[in-house]
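Students often ask what a 'structure token' actually looks like in practice. Rather than answer in the abstract, let us consider Link domain-containing protein, a protein of 327 residues. Its sequence is given first.
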Amino acid sequence: CLPASRTRMAHCRDLLLCAALAHSAGLIAKYPPVRAVLSGSLTIPCHIIYQRPLPTAETASRHGVRAPSESNGPSVPMAKSRDPGGRAPPRSSSHGQRGPRSATSSSPARCPGLSSRLAGVVFHYRGGSSRYAYTFPQAQAACARIGAAIATPEQLHAAYHSGYEQCDAGWLADQTVRYPIHTPREACYGDMNGDMYDVYCYAEELHGDLFVESSPGKFTWEEAKAACEKLELEMATTGQLYAAWNQGLDHCNPGWLADGSVRYPIVMPREKCGGNMPGVKTLFVFRNQTGFPDPQSKFDVFCFQGKQGSSLWDSGLHLGCLGTPAS
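Now compare that with the structural description of the same chain:
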């Protein structure tokens, strides 16, 4: 039945839309939060007010995640599954990651007494040596090494619809190579060839506690590892840091990670902390965004303890140094 106000009862099966609808309600939840993962499905009963025509198959496919060699112009069609081919585009236009933070919807909605929690984050990854250095098996291994899994095309599409943009081609789980672009521009048109690329990884949950450890003189990489071990912790992986960022970790000081990279997570952007975009910021040595810092450089360190061990704190995400809140 359709009320005079054109309000329609619908069951929302798109995860990103559901997250947006649940958040837009602005009401105290009567039930426990609904947990869903990026690119998964969720059914929520909501009243939706349509303020403009629903998208058709034609209008819905005008933007999306680009596959290599898909276009020689600025249009952004939905990606097609294909094997890699063509010349790779130059360096990324951004040092940090755009989204995925939250979904948005242009239609007002009422979802009384219901809240949701969206888990999972897609991120671009490359090693410290060079750009486009992975075959597909090496890309799978790289994600596993940093505590993540290689992302699926569906997960990358979901991240794209949450605002994620990255002008770097990367492997996905179906052995295609893609990258998400919202603003078509020179060098991001997909003219690529070869069989070695970066990779898009996926981290879903932080299965343990993440800490930031510091000292007045900071740590080299070896000192950082020893500092975590002294506390009976491990050095955190890149995947764990992304999962912590996705759960709200904001820390403006760079810290060592287990793969030798130096990164810091920013939820609330500010100029002195990497610019006006949220994301996990990475310190590269060279302008083309390659090269991890020298192991003798001095930084803080991110440490991690899995839930199976005996925790120094109650189980959860600890947004700061041991005993000191993060800035």
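One point worth highlighting: Confidence is low (pLDDT under 50) at residues 1-31, 59-63, 71-109, 309-327. Ask yourself how you might have guessed this from the sequence alone, and why that guess would often be unreliable.
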